[in-house]
Write a structure and sequence with these properties.
alpha/beta; Rossmann fold; 8-stranded mixed beta sheet; 5-stranded antiparallel beta sheet; 16 strands; 39% helix; binds S-adenosylmethionine
Length: 381
């Protein structure tokens, strides 16, 4: 039996009124129902007091390496005045703060005329962001996701996101002997259940066709139509510059392998993973892995070029984590603290199931000729 949360009653009566809903609509309510969704209700979500860690919460060096790459992007564009940074899914502003601190300290010319635009689904986070970014407040402005996607916002610079796309509501499908079906959510006497039915939109089949994926009989998978939709808004807004996306995910070939029979949907609650999305509605996070092939291939149709794609550890190692470690060695913190920090930074780069290769980084460019990025350097060279 699903325990009662305020959201539980709302979703149950929605289903009673309108009939079964797509999993994407269910996930949208669980994460973003105003005031009650996981991301739209009060409380810490990320970090030790929350439900999961992201790379940002590990150490400021993560943001500082991203900042090194962003400064390199700026140089690739001819060091223009008025470079705009846009962060989508900015959370409490921690990553933006680490990036801005680095740029203020090491790239004063760039920082002088830099604009930072934060886009966040949950408007109440603006006060946390204001506080976190107090010293950079003059550079700061905000946009709602609707304003961002409206077509009236345009900029040149870099749009970056960390763990945004895995938090976008996704459809789920299953291959049956009768063809591709969609997973719907039903609720009878307070019990949530799933049933397969005809796809709510032909876009689901078209999505899989685009990445040449044919699911095996019985195989379930997520089809995140919101990911290409978001990318289309991003590509439209970007006049010139880069889109840097960090998230956990795979190429379509890896993501939709028949070995992953149940897809990648996963929930997080107090640092425990949970496979059942029908528990603690609105209190646990629900995520799915990102299909980077779609971002890359659809991005090309949208006029973006794929500048770099790879594991987080490769990105960090070549874009500046080594320099961060060298800075640490030169600093006057105690040997004990240096050791502690070295071990902390290791978490970001350790491959084989650690953050280092679970996370992937994609850099796309627009109207920048042959960009030369730090992450393209040979590791260690
Ligand atoms: C998994 S959290 C990541 C937060 C932060 N980037 C980090 O790494 O700690 C995803 C964030 O994206 C926000 N979000 C979801 N959809 C969004 C959208 N369309 N535009 C902007 N933010 C969005 C959520 O409210 C949430 O704060």
């Amino acid at each position: 039996m699903t325990e009662t949360t305020p959201l539980n009653d709302i979703i149950a009566s929605r289903i009673a009124r309108q009939g079964r809903i797509t999993f994407a609509d269910f996930m949208a309510a669980c994460l973003y129902e105003p005031g009650l969704g996981y991301y739209t209700s009060p409380g810490r979500k990320v970090g030790a007091e929350g439900d999961f860690y992201t790379s940002i919460t590990v150490h400021a060096s993560y943001g500082r390496v991203v900042a090194r790459e962003i400064a390199q992007m700026w140089r690739n564009m001819g060091s223009p005045a008025g470079f705009t940074l846009v962060e989508c899914g900015a959370g409490n502003g921690r990553l933006a703060c680490d990036i801005m601190d680095f740029l203020a300290e090491r790239e004063p010319v760039m920082h002088q005329s830099l604009r930072l635009v934060l886009v966040e689904q949950e408007p109440s986070l603006e006060s946390a962001q204001r506080e976190m970014l107090a010293v950079h407040i003059d550079s700061l402005s905000w946009l709602s996701p609707d304003e961002f996607a409206s077509g009236s916002f345009t900029f040149s610079g870099c749009l970056y996101s960390n763990e945004l796309i895995d938090a976008l509501p996704t459809h789920r499908v299953v291959m049956t002997s009768d063809g591709l079906k969609e997973v719907y959510v039903t609720c009878t006497n307070g019990e949530y259940a799933e049933e397969a039915g005809e796809p709510s939109t032909p876009e689901l089949e078209a999505y899989l066709k685009r990445v040449a994926v044919e699911l095996h009989p019985g195989q379930q998978a997520e089809v995140n139509l919101n990911a290409p939709k978001w990318l289309a808004s991003a590509a439209r807004a970007l006049q010139r510059g880069f889109i840097l996306t960090i998230d956990y995910g795979y190429t379509a070939h890896e993501l939709y392998t028949p070995l992953r029979k149940l897809g990648t949907l996963l929930c997080y609650y107090r640092h425990q993973t949970e496979e059942n999305p029908y528990l603690r509605l609105g209190l646990q996070d629900i995520t799915s892995h990102v299909d980077f092939t779609t971002l890359m291939e659809y991005g090309e149709e949208l006029g973006l070029q794929n500048a770099w794609f790879g594991e987080q550890y490769r990105f960090l190692m070549s874009a500046g984590i080594i320099e961060e470690l060298e800075d640490l060695e030169r600093s006057d913190v105690s040997d004990e603290e240096k050791l502690r920090l070295r071990l902390t930074l290791k978490k970001l780069i350790v491959p084989q199931g650690g953050m280092g290769d679970t996370f992937r980084v994609l850099i796309q460019s627009k109207r920048v000729t042959a960009p030369r990025l730090l992450c393209q350097r040979r590791i260690g060279g």
